[in-house]
Write a structure and sequence with these properties.
Family: Belongs to the trans-sulfuration enzymes family.
InterPro entries: Cys/Met-Metab_PyrdxlP-dep_enz (IPR000277), Cys_b_lyase_bac (IPR006233), PyrdxlP-dep_Trfase (IPR015424), PyrdxlP-dep_Trfase_major (IPR015421), PyrdxlP-dep_Trfase_small (IPR015422)
Strand order of the largest sheet: 1-7-6-5-4-2-3
Radius of gyration: 22 Å
Structural class: alpha/beta
CATH topology of the largest domain: Aspartate Aminotransferase, domain 2
Cofactor: pyridoxal 5'-phosphate
Shape: globular
Bound molecules: pyridoxal-5'-phosphate
Distance between the termini: 63 Å
Helix content: 25-40%
Number of helices: 13
CATH superfamily of the largest domain: Type I PLP-dependent aspartate aminotransferase-like (Major domain)
Order of helices and strands: HHHHEHEHEEHEHEEHHEHEHEEEH
Largest sheet: 7 strands, mixed
Number of domains: 2
CATH architecture of the largest domain: 3-Layer(aba) Sandwich
Organism: Rhizobium lusitanum
Strand content: 5-15%
Protein name: Cystathionine beta-lyase
Length: 396
């Protein structure tokens, strides 16, 4: 086994995804881990029960199934430990509760996932934690925003819906000067295209609902911490009892095996469509970090190894009063794209983005913003569907 572990450290990403996170000979050679449904775990005697001197103690504290996924995420993220929670949103809120206390101040990127903002503005506020939102393009300028009680800096790159890139190394360096923990929602890139802990982040967050699960049928989150921040995260996880179900953990691990090949396809198709959209007169602007025309593209190029399958474009509409009408005409004409939340599954999805909650970010004004999740369908069919949308916009 040791030989294999060493080999996997230097192997290619698809080799690693095929083998990490599970030791078949721990379970009679079966290549997948068993799905262990657990609340009670028995102890052989009173002394072991008293000291908890065995690997598993209770269903909320991990099972061989959840451990297999945690080990896979640690291998991908380079983290000291990973917790599993029941949704991507919980993967953000649990670390916030782990590292923040009443009287603390947190800096949250303004292009953050909407429900994260809602949690900050409601529950964190009620708990006496003050939050300020900062411009995703702030870079080292974040230095000006720290207060004596700032304890946490939350990043998300690219930003939700508008895809601004953040200078993660510069922000992390400034945050550490002020003794803050740096968290990052790394769902868009997955650890295949960006490894936050290698760029100064302390805690990497994933909605594994998206590309890791990959089939639009699972909701789950993971949080992976470096050695300095692992113990506190694990304690909070135990205190809150917000654990993930073994069936879902099994499905996410199953999804990870094919995530590399799926992501290659999502990346390629999304880029082809993004480039094609750039040349269309119906489109004012394409918001995709891997396009050289995108304002923070240089940061993406410097730090990221790839781009995934979700991006937005701004529909060119002269009259702001017609933004909604034209956006709805586009969406209602689509047949291959479904109208639905989430992303990272096998199928294409579209929605009109609502940017009303932004406080400091400059948002596009040339027209309504449409977000596309490009699935695994054939690009020609996806383009034909978008053409139908454009035809409906012209008629609306
Ligand atoms: C960037 C980002 N983070 C977190 C989440 C939350 O994931 P979940 O749907 O599993 O709660 C989402 C969901 O869309 C997301 O887009």
């Amino acid at each position: 086994m040791k030989d294999k572990d060493t080999l996997l450290q230097t192997a290619g990403i698809n080799t690693r995804l095929s083998h990490i996170g599970n030791s078949p000979f721990d379970f009679h050679g079966f290549v997948n881990p068993p799905v262990v449904h657990a609340s009670t775990v028995l102890f052989p005697n009173a002394r072991v029960m008293e000291t908890h001197d065995q690997k598993y103690t209770y269903g909320t504290r991990g099972t061989p199934t959840t451990d297999a996924l945690c080990e896979a995420m640690d291998a991908l993220e380079g983290s000291a430990g990973t917790i599993i929670v029941p949704s991507g949103l919980a993967a953000v809120t649990v670390p916030f509760l782990a590292y923040l206390s009443a009287g603390d101040h947190a800096l949250i990127v303004d292009s953050v996932y909407g429900p994260t903002r809602f949690f900050c503005d409601t529950m964190l506020k009620r708990l006496g934690i003050e939050v300020d939102y900062y411009d995703p393009l702030v870079g080292a300028g974040i230095e000006q925003l720290f207060k004596p009680n700032t304890r946490l800096v939350h990043t998300e790159a690219p930003g939700s819906n508008t895809f601004e890139m953040q200078d993660i190394p510069a922000i992390s360096a400034a945050a550490h000067q002020h003794g803050c923990v740096v968290t990052m929602d790394n769902t868009w890139a997955t650890p295949l295209y960006f490894k936050p802990l290698d760029h100064g982040v302390d805690v990497s967050i994933h909605a594994v609902t998206k590309y890791p699960a990959g089939h639009s049928d699972i909701v789950m989150g993971t949080v992976s911490a470096n050695a300095a921040h692992w113990e506190r995260l694990l304690d909070a996880h135990g205190q809150l009892g917000i654990c993930g179900a073994p069936d879902d953990a099994y499905q996410v691990l199953r999804g990870l095996r094919t995530m590399g090949v799926r992501l290659d396809r999502h990346q390629e198709s999304a880029l082809e469509i993004a480039r094609w959209l750039e040349g269309r007169e119906e489109v004012a602007r394409v918001l995709h970090p891997a396009l050289p025309s995108f304002p923070s593209h240089e940061i993406w190029k410097r730090d990221f190894k790839g781009s995934s399958g979700i991006f937005s474009f701004v529909l060119a509409v002269d009259n702001p009063e017609k933004f909604k009408l034209k956006a709805h005409a586009f969406l209602d004409a689509l047949r291959i794209f479904g109208l639905g939340y989430s992303w990272g599954g096998f199928e294409s999805l579209a929605l009109q983005v609502n940017l009303n909650d932004r406080r400091v970010t400059k948002v596009p004004t040339e027209g309504p913003v449409i977000r596309l999740q490009i699935g695994l369908e054939d690009v020609a069919d996806i383009k034909a569907d978008i053409e139908k949308g454009f035809a409906a916009v012209r008629e609306a």
